[in-house]
Design brief:
Strand content: 15-25%
Distance between the termini: 7 Å
Order of helices and strands: HEEEHHHEEH
Structural class: alpha+beta
Strand order of the largest sheet: 3-4-5
Radius of gyration: 27 Å
Helix content: 40-55%
Length: about 240
């Protein structure tokens, strides 16, 4: 039977995070188009050489990192609000000063919940079970733990995000070139030769978190997963 608690704050923050995804995607899409504007093969045809750079990393504008930080912050706050509101509903006299959604940086053992301590004091058992089942710790629930870690990164300085460009040769063909070299006697030698150069290639840019627990994750898919994970927990609280 539903408990009739309306988690307005948690829901509002989740919905705000969802609404920001379109704005974030548009900003990142524009950045990708800028990065993919030209390939970064280095060709030296006069020497019959083809040098290929496999990847280049470019900084993402700070404003986009700030935007990501605000979304992550809203999701972390939505989880905290769940616990506080539930505890206050169960007992309005409980001091919720230290009440938060518990997330541990340690690799906790399944079934050991003592570390949650004061963070969920006064939380009814049915809700506590939801928190325990969510495995909010390192190695338990990667998405929930990443939200916690990224929030800390943002609060201490900034979330580190990069644009990683990669080249890929799709097809190459034979091309006639004249290679210039110097002989043993110091004379210049021009040698006709056939070498391979790309006829078609692609450039792909991915916007990724850099470093930390989310290092290497693509930003947009990862945040979409974070939103889904938080939404799932809110839904379970509402269904008790």
């Amino acid at each position: 039977m539903a408990n009739h608690i309306t988690y307005r704050s948690s829901r509002a923050k989740l919905e705000w995070a969802q609404s920001q995804m379109n704005i974030l995607e548009q900003g990142l899409e524009s950045l990708v188009k800028q990065q993919d504007n030209s390939a970064f093969f280095k060709m030296g045809k006069e020497k019959g050489e083809l040098l290929i750079q496999g990847a280049q990393i470019h900084d993402v504008p700070d404003i986009l990192s700030v935007h990501v930080g605000r979304i992550i912050g809203a999701l972390r706050s939505a989880l905290d609000n769940l616990i506080v509101q539930t505890v206050q509903t169960a007992d309005p006299t409980v001091n919720t000063r230290n009440t938060v959604f518990p997330i541990s940086g340690n690799t906790e053992k399944p079934g050991c919940h003592k570390w949650m301590g004061e963070k969920i004091r006064g939380l009814p058992t049915s809700y506590r079970d939801i928190v325990v089942d969510a495995k909010p710790y390192r190695g338990g629930n990667d998405k929930i733990f990443a939200i916690h870690s990224l929030r800390n990164e943002d609060e201490h300085l900034a979330i580190n995000i990069v644009a990683l460009r990669r080249n890929a040769v799709i097809s190459s063909g034979s091309h006639f070139v004249v290679v210039k070299s110097e002989g043993a006697d110091g004379k210049i030698i021009y040698t006709p030769t056939v070498t391979q150069f790309p006829d078609e290639f692609s450039v792909q840019t991915k916007i990724e978190f850099s470093g930390g627990v989310a290092g290497g994750w693509e930003v947009v898919p990862a945040i979409s997963d974070f939103i889904a994970a938080v939404g799932d927990i809110i839904q379970k609280f509402e269904a008790v």
